[in-house]
Design a protein that fits this description.
heterodimer; A: about 300 residues; Rossmann fold; five-stranded parallel β-sheet; 9 strands; B: mainly beta; Alpha-Beta Plaits; five-stranded antiparallel β-sheet; four-stranded antiparallel β-sheet
């Protein structure tokens, strides 16, 4: 039963609960009209303390497509934070008005903290610094399920900024719970997967490398990520690392014919635009699945999917 | 060799790794109590070569969690009527609540007033704990 629960990290849900969200997403994709009023009369608080296009729009589009309404902000200067209000007080106030809240914040652990102040309102973590991004994980799982038939038994290459990449941390921890998953972590030495993630994996299930060329032919899924300027203290260091991996047509030639390329977006230059035409590039479809899976999640946490 | 008289009642914190005695003294806030407290540093020891030792002539309760975090190898002897009545060896606590702070500069607990932060033991050898909020690993005291 997911009604009333928070989603702070993917580990908050059992695999069968995640599966139930995927099944509901499938049903919504098959019959979006049928779900267009299930959230009528419900209000989603959209609390974005950090810039976001995709995640915020997909949550807001999801709620609107379910027939619900939205309140919130996308700039903390327009909230009481600018008056020095604590997060706890903000959430307790918002709970007086809203049925469900989505929060993105640059500090790690924020969503877990605010969930302690919300007694009845489900909190969804839409990204907390370099820590977790569980709804991107749900998006990724739905995409893998759609293009690869399921989430078991894949070799998954994860490439780019593995140190600060919150989408990657959430995805790796979750995929490791499925059967027969093996990871290839591809990153510059400075941006390697952090110890707290590696410690949760069976060492036999992953290898680390700095070379994308050497491993691309072994992969079923290549998950690319952006080197994020906002996570770096030094501009020099960012400029040095941002062009480390660029996926182009030439590199794609060495990949399997049924490999898929995923990316949480936005991309900068880590995937050349020429790759977009390749049928193995599924990142824009992934963005669309993001909206459907968020529709399913909202409906589940509000317990309204049966209103259809 | 300096001699300190035998304790009639109170607590002897023994087998403290040399150099950690003052840390324990500070964390137990022994400076704030009116009872007799003796901190002995660098005592020759057969087993440890050198050790620190603290004697407290008191009835106060000791927070074992703090002691375990600083030096899990210490032993605590409780003395009553000049006789040893109880001896305890410490281990690292599995969960620490409200004593540690997260050292991750990006953790929300550095910016909001968060009370009672829980930390979970993840690596006994390195004395590392995981922050309940940001999952970053941290230690109670910085190892040299």
């Amino acid at each position: 039963m997911l009604k009333g629960r928070h989603l702070i990290e993917p580990g908050d849900f059992q695999l069968n609960e995640i599966e139930s969200i995927m099944q509901l997403a499938d049903n919504i994709i098959a019959d979006p009209e049928g779900y267009s009023l299930v959230c009528k009369g419900k209000l989603l608080a959209s609390l974005f303390y950090e810039p976001s296009t995709r995640t915020r729009f997909s949550f807001e589009a999801a709620m609107l497509r379910l027939g619900g309404e939205i309140i919130g902000f996308d700039d903390p200067n327009n909230s009481s934070v600018s008056k020095g209000e604590s997060l706890g007080d903000t959430i307790r106030t918002i709970e007086c008005y809203s049925d469900i809240a989505v929060i993105r914040h640059p500090r790690e652990g924020t969503a877990r903290l605010v969930s302690k102040f919300a007694n009845e309102m489900p909190i969804i973590n839409a990204g907390d610094g370099g820590h977790e991004h569980p709804t991107q994980t749900l998006t990724d799982l739905l995409t893998i399920r759609k293009f690869k038939g399921g989430c078991d038994n894949h070799v998954v290459g994860v490439c780019g900024d593995l140190l600060f990449g919150r989408t990657i941390h959430s995805l790796v921890k979750t995929l490791s719970r499925y059967k027969g998953i093996r990871f290839v972590f591809i990153s510059p030495t400075e941006l390697k997967m952090p110890a707290h993630i590696l410690n949760q994996l069976d060492p036999k299930t992953y290898k680390e490398t700095t070379s994308l060329d050497e491993v691309i032919g072994q992969l079923d899924i290549l998950y690319m990520s952006r080197v994020q300027r906002e996570r770096f203290v030094s501009e020099e260091e960012y400029l040095r690392l941002k062009n480390y991996y660029i996926l182009d047509k030439k590199k794609m030639k060495a990949a399997k014919q049924d490999m898929i390329v995923m990316h949480p977006l936005p991309r900068v230059n880590e995937i050349a635009t020429e790759v977009d035409e390749d049928p193995r590039a599924v990142y824009f479809a992934q963005a669309k699945y993001g909206m459907y899976v968020r529709m399913a999640l909202i409906a589940k946490l509000l317990g309204v999917e049966d209103r259809k | 060799m300096i001699n300190v008289s035998k304790l009639k009642k109170g607590i002897i914190i023994d087998h403290i790794e040399a150099g950690h005695g003052f840390e324990i003294y500070k964390e137990l806030h022994l400076n704030d109590i009116d009872d007799v407290v003796v901190l002995l540093k660098n005592i020759p020891s057969k087993k440890m070569k050198q050790k620190d030792l603290i004697k407290i002539e008191t009835d106060m309760q000791i927070d074992m969690t703090v002691l375990g975090l600083i030096d899990p190898n210490v032993t605590i002897n409780f003395v009553k009527n000049g006789e040893l009545c109880k001896k305890i060896s410490l281990t690292l606590p599995k969960v620490v609540n409200g004593i540690m702070t997260c050292k991750n500069p990006r953790c929300i607990t550095q910016y909001e007033d968060v009370k009672e932060i829980k930390f979970y033991l993840v690596n006994e050898e390195k004395k590392q704990y995981r922050c309940e909020y940001c999952d970053a690993y941290t230690t109670f005291i910085d190892e040299e």
